[in-house]
Amino acid sequence: MRHFDAKLRQACAARGDRLLYLRPVLTQMPLPIQRYDDPFLPFSKAIINATCDLVCGYLFDFAAYLTLGAAGAVALERAIAYAGADSATITILHAPLWGVDFARAMGETAFNVDAVTLVRAEDTTAYAAEGVGALLVDAVDFAGGAMRHADLTLRLIGDVVVYAGRGDDFAEQARAALLG
Q1: Contact indicator for 81, 112 with CB cutoff of 8 Å
Q2: Alpha carbon of 122 to those of 50, 95, 99, 119, 126: distances in Å?
Q3: For 51, phi and psi rounded to 5 degrees?
Q4: H or E element: which one contains 1?
Q5: Residue 95 backbone phi and psi in degrees, to 5
Q6: What is the pLDDT along the chain (180 residues), one digit of tens a residue?
């Protein structure tokens, strides 16, 4: 947990307090991406490429990725690895999880996220043992566009940016929406 806290503070100091919520939805995908058999990974990579210098990290929606079943789980794992490849970008998986059964799956041998959203505070110890930070789901305010962690409040930005464009320039439109 301390590692996550330090990494989050460092990412915020370097790139600001914006956290981009990636929630791929097939019916909202840009037309060029809909042509792929498994569109979630190329979509995620394009959005990450266009925005990585403008956000402190990404909040990945577990349920949204799993709508494609195993292909979605693979896309999620690879998108997390892609976003976190620079070792400075925060990766958070929004499940939200209840209990400790998924702790190993979130660690470095599987999804390898910096943090997860949890329902119960008593589960944080098991995730910390795997090197994974925890954010209680009540710290995530999707309607208000904020996520709280300790004394930090991150601006949570989602669909309005991610789905700003539907054409070939969708990634550039996402970047422009984030800047605007």
Answers
A1: yes
A2: 37, 16, 8, 9, 9
A3: -125, -5
A4: none
A5: -105, -45
A6: 568 999 999 999 999 999 999 999 999 999 999 999 999 999 999 999 999 999 999 999 999 999 999 999 999 999 999 999 999 999 999 999 999 999 999 988 889 999 999 999 999 999 999 999 999 998 899 888 999 999 999 999 999 999 999 999 999 999 999 998
